[in-house]
Design goal:
Helices cover 42% and strands 26% of the residues. A two-stranded antiparallel sheet has the order 1-2. It has 69 residues and is α+β, with helices and mostly antiparallel strands. It has 3 helices and 2 strands, in the order αββαα.
C-alpha cells in the first residue's frame, strides 16, 4: 500500500522481523533521509529538531550582521 507521501518523497515503509533469542518481533521501518521524512510527515516527526546547513548559514549570517554593526 503506497500513500501520497511515498510517491512524492520516495519513502520506503515496510515491516521487518527481528529475532532476539527465541522471540520474534515485528518492527515497522521507515526508510528515507531525515529531511524527506520531516517534510512528508511533519506531525509524526514533530519531536525531532533537525537543522539543515541552509538554516544554520542563515542564522550565522544574521548573527554576524549584528556583530559587525
Amino acid at each position: 500500500m503506497k500513500t501520497t507521501a511515498n510517491n512524492v518523497w520516495g519513502i520506503n515503509i515496510y515491516t521487518k522481523t527481528v529475532t532476539e533469542g527465541t522471540q520474534r518481533q515485528m518492527w515497522g521501518v521507515i526508510e528515507a533521509p531525515i529531511n524527506k521524512m520531516l517534510k512528508a510527515y511533519p506531525g509524526e516527526f514533530k519531536f525531532i529538531r533537525h537543522e539543515t546547513r541552509r538554516s544554520l548559514d542563515n542564522e550565522r549570517a544574521k548573527r554576524n550582521a549584528k556583530i559587525t554593526k
